[in-house]
Amino acid sequence: MKSCQKSEPDVMKIAILLYIVSSFLLTPSTAEDDPSDNQESENSEDTVDVFTKCYEHLGCVQTDSNWYHKIYRPINLKPADRHIIKTDFLLLKQSETDPESMLYNSFVAIEGSMKAAGFNNASQLMIIIHDFTGNGYSGWIKNLAFTMIKNALDYNLVSVDWQRGAEPPYDQALANSRVVALEIIALLKELKESMHYSFDNVHIVGHGVGAHIAGYVGGTYNKIKKITGLDPNGPRFHGMPNIVKLNPDCAKYVEVIHTDSYDSRSQGINESLGHSDFYVNSAPNQPGCSNNPVFSDLLSVDRSNLKEGQILPGCSHKRSFKYFIEAVSNGNCTFMGISCDGPKEFDEGRCNSCNDSGRDCKFFGLKTYMNAAQNIKYYLNSGDQTPYCMFQYRMNISIKGDSKVGYFDFILVDEHANVAEAVLTSESSSNYRDIKGGQSNIFVYYAHPPKLGPLKEAKVRWNEEKKFYCILFCKQSITVDKITVNFLGTGSEDGRYETVLCPTNGEMEIENGSYKTFTNCSPKSKSSSTAVPKTTSSTRTSTKMTTKKVNRHKHKS
Questions:
Q1: Ordered structural domains, the chain, with CATH
Q2: Measuring CA to CA, how many Å separate 529 from each of 354, 415, 506, 532, 547?
Q3: Mean of the per-residue pLDDT values for the chain?
Q4: How far apart are CA 185 and CA 58, in angstroms?
Q5: What is the DSSP secondary-structure string of 466-517?
Q6: Which site in 161, 414, 472, 500 is 20 to 30 Å from 199, CA atoms measured?
Q7: Closest-CA residue to 227 (of 191, 269, 273)
Q8: Is pLDDT at 294 greater than 70 in this prediction?
Q9: Quick check: helix, strand or coil at residue 275?
Q10: Which of 403, 383, 277 is nearest to 322 (CA)?
């Protein structure tokens, strides 16, 4: 940034002109606002200089060169007045008379007000921050609160409503978001000083722009326990320094769920912002969502594009909070990401196990990983509709003969007759892989519930890439020697099973588009709960059991 400023001195002059113009544009109309609010604003807010605007006891917002970039953030406005943004804190409580209803108890950052709203000093605190064009009463926030309450999770659930500040245009909402952060900082300060509340109990969840607001709060109180960024916005944040966006230094643990990686048409960001960055379905577009964006440019959105009270559309962008809500539902399926260098390596099956060759796996949700390394990328896939969470199976497919381009589908049946269909991804068009002949090919497959134990058999289908010259005369098939299946997800009650499957009657060839049945190579195996004894070279040939349970341990969440 410094070298850029030295080489282009005119940039600051242009920025100053923009600030001066913005100060006139942001002068609020008094026709629709309470005159007493305006009087308070005039007496309590002050512009110290062209780059600084102060908000009474909250502190000041600086719009200096750190917040400007000629390409990534060419417009750098000052925030609106406090009474325009009207940040409100809502403590969410389930109605005692109507369990299907949610109560929104409004309060201010004063001890008496918080206690009157029902704040419990002995419970943990989750602060939830909505996105651009959203509001604190949004359906996803209500659904998250009901999920937490249903699972008896002991939290104070506080929704931050900054609807008036989150209205278009986008650049003004970004400026206003910094005042929202000051309001939250004041709330935490009051909790700490008046109620002696520990920041080790604070978890901030922010969606889109709300994720960066969480980062601003953490920039002041970086001792808070955790921040979850739900698809943080990319426009005006991509390429900017850490002071402008969510980053790993904002909390003891920062997890980020990417579902709409930033390009010219998306809302998310393709940068690692946390300790753990989870890229679901590699993040460019979520299964079941259209590839066509509703708006070609987020920066051009204004209120005329939306109906009264309407929230900005964005199917892939919104999947982030849907995945998070499902992750905290306390079910037996967990969203587990495998560390990997990038989506290409993940799709090619190079990252297919946990705690192997330095790789590790992590879950997103309520779990906090202390002392985690920063900017580690984790990849996983999901379903195209609820339930989105899928169990993961490591398939080691031993191929004989020539290399092929295609993919396998599996119908898995365990020893208790539970059945699940396992696929590479939810979108078959992106499933084609290079299958190497004469060697093992390892991929991670995904299956909806139920959760399977050791397998009895699998029906295996081969799908070969279509070739225009193979319409009449080519025989498309593949020869499979055996398949080793490992369950990757670690549930709360059991470990990871491994099953070796062999072709029935030794018939290894699978024709294109056809299923072939593979069975457990040791059909006499009756036990699914005892581990196979480790064999030595002298006993290995006499040991026939190939289904085993390994790494048995409890997963702590």
A1: 2-67 (no CATH), 82-380 (3.40.50.1820), 391-550 (2.60.60.20)
A2: 21, 11, 28, 10, 10
A3: 84
A4: 8
A5: P-GGGSSS---EEEEEEEEEEE----SS--EEEEEEEEGGG--EEEBT-EEE
A6: 161
A7: 273
A8: no
A9: coil
A10: 383
pLDDT of 435 strictly over 70: yes
The single-letter code of the amino acid at 124 is Q
Overall average pLDDT of the 138-159 stretch: 96
Supply the DSSP string of 374-416, one letter for each residue: SSEEEEE---SSSS---EEEEEEEEEESS-EEEEEEEEEEETT
Which DSSP helix (H) or strand (E) runs through 324? helix 315-327
Q: What DSSP element (H or E) covers 229? A: strand 226-230
Is the pLDDT confidence value at 202 over 60?
A: yes
Confidence tier at 108 by pLDDT (50, 70, 90): very high
Q: What is the pLDDT of residues 439-472, one digit of tens each?
A: 999 999 999 999 898 899 999 999 998 876 666 6
Task: Of 490, 416, 411, 423, give the one whose Cα is nearest residue 453.
Answer: 416
Is residue 155 over pLDDT 60?
yes
Query: Coil, strand or helix: which one is 190?
Result: helix
Residue 36: what are its φ and ψ, rounded to 5°? -65, -35
Q: In the prediction, which pLDDT does 300 show? A: 82
Closest CA to 90 of 187, 5, 177, 23: 187
HSE on the CB side for 80, CA within 13 Å?
28
Over residues 68-94, mean pLDDT? 97
Give pLDDT, residue 470: 64
Closest CA to 371 of 273, 251, 506, 551: 251
Choose the weakest-confidence range: 306-310, 438-442, 538-542: 538-542
**Identity of the amino acid at 172:** Q
Handedness of CA 360, 363, 368, 373 (dihedral sign): positive
Task: Provide the residue type at 343 as one letter.
Answer: P
Identity of residue 274: G
